[in-house]
Amino acid sequence: MRKYYLGPEASHEVPFKKLLAISHYIMPNFATMDWDRVSREQVDENLRSLRDPGGALNDELMMYIHVPYCQSFCHYCNFNKNHYPWQDEERLQRYTDYLLKEIDYYLSLPYVQARRFTAIYIGGGSPSTLPVSAVERLFGHLAKVVPGFDTIEKTFTGEPRTLRKPDLLKVIHDYGFDRVTFGIETLNPEIHKKIGRWDSPSDVDAVFEGLEKLGYKGDRCVDLMYDLPGQSLVGFQEELATLVAHYRPDEIDAFGTVYLPYRPLHKLILDGRVPQPGSIWQLLRMREHLYDYLLENGYHNTIAETYSRKPQRSMYQTAHCARQDIIGIGCAARGNIKDMVSINPDKVDVWMNNIDQYGASTQTLQSIGRGGVLDRIMVMFPRYKELSKELLARYSDVEHFEQVEDVLRSHIEVGCVEEQEDRYVVNKLGVIWHGNLQTDYMERSLNLQGKVLLKVISEKESHFDREDRFKVNKATRFIAKHIDKYPKLMK
After folding, report:
1. What is the pLDDT of residues 71-102, one digit of tens each?
2. Taking the CB of residue 462, how many other CB atoms lie within 10 A of it?
3. How many CA within 13 A on the CB side of residue 409?
4. Is-above-0.90 flag for pTM?
């Protein structure tokens, strides 16, 4: 297998003029949209349009359910989360009550009823922080109202120290959830502390052992991070080898660490309380080693960050990469349905009040048109790794279609994408650089804040060897002054 950044024969190819310092998750038309510009009247009209079963751009649909509570906050996390109500379990039960209400609202709509359900994904936050009785109520309700519940893909996520509860694992097993996913992030105890993780190796062991004891037949999926503060290439290689040999997870989501400006982890680095991550060259070596090692050990690179023992993608991955509609349930959940997108309120009380008043919590549901849908497909193409020529051709009437084709051709020219008879495929070099591929497609629709954000998290090749990757400069000061314009990333 060709080497780009590893070994004495490494070519050190740099197909782009700059490298994004993180594998970012800025969703097209999400992280930089002006959400307050849609009126309540327009939201209501858009919701009413879902009473018509027609007008679909996708025939398949999945449900994402968000549980925002965490017992502690990891320094790198930029997802919506709330402090765990240690002495108020009733708050968690009430949150579950409102999940059921919002689920029922969407399932009553003719548009939803006319689609084929493919999956349910329960994420957070940490859904495993819910009381087991609340989880059982949620599962029981879903089993009654979701079409094909027994046969569709079902995923439950958690944190090891709460997911390990035997009675919770039993409920997950008994309701036929076929994917359990949780974060390990790092096996290095010192780095583990520096990123704000409070679970222990014994918690991770207990999850694997508990599932084994139940005879669980589904997939055991874990998150692993790289490019962590103070992490070396050798250290990462050893961690990855230990993870594969000791736990043998069915799926590994391997994420580059998110260092968004003036979020907690970035602040700790600026304050000198956490060490800088390694150079960009080391980051590239980590990405290449990840790809080579996991493919050599029986894993398939199903999407850019995910490696599975199964060659096929999960339904959640397929939907997340803009190939299916998503119903967003819960505080801060995002959705895309027909040609419309939304993010639910990120405050629990506002979310609940909207459900009481309107049935659904969204106050941002708005159309992005066929052009916006094409943008979503193309931005997600580098993660999905392939693009059907037939799918692309469906959007040939979009005004900026030629611009999209020009970007695609440029990616073929630099060697990150290969053209096949019926599709375009992102190759190994493209997987390593998928952040830049995504950004090229995203560039057209970014507003000023989005463009500044990408400038801040970018590097020039001349800076690849510098020791201090993150520091205060003109751009980061701009970010600090306008921090409210940069919404937290949503699931």
Report:
1. 888 888 877 777 778 778 899 999 999 999 99
2. 7
3. 6
4. yes
